[in-house]
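thoughts on my protein:
***
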Amino acid sequence: MEGRKNVGWGFLFLGLFMASGFFLGYMHDIAPQKEQWIAQYASGTHFEIRMAHAHGGLFGLLDVAVGLALLALPIPSPRARWISWLALAGLLMPIGILLHALFALPPVLVFLGGAAMVVATLWLGSEALRLRQAARS
């Protein structure tokens, strides 16, 4: 039953990073130092939190899509398990962006998470095409 964790964690990440949009809205429209925040639009903490917000939502949706595909397609269990865990590891990317923005940690998780999600997505696409070709033969 590979994919269930991806759907669950994907929706949690989607919700959490959507909620971070409220923080961004507060900082842009209400916060006492909003002019300074707006001036940093394309750099610094503001930029990186926006990047985490965007990628967290996107990667949450990708995990939901991966999970639903794994639940629906007859992909052999060992490969489905690898795809599932790689997609879950992809969620490290937005976490890494936030950790880099807030605590100046090296962006290692950003690159590891991004690479894991790319591999999971390409592998799942390959498996889906392989199923289509196998059905025709």
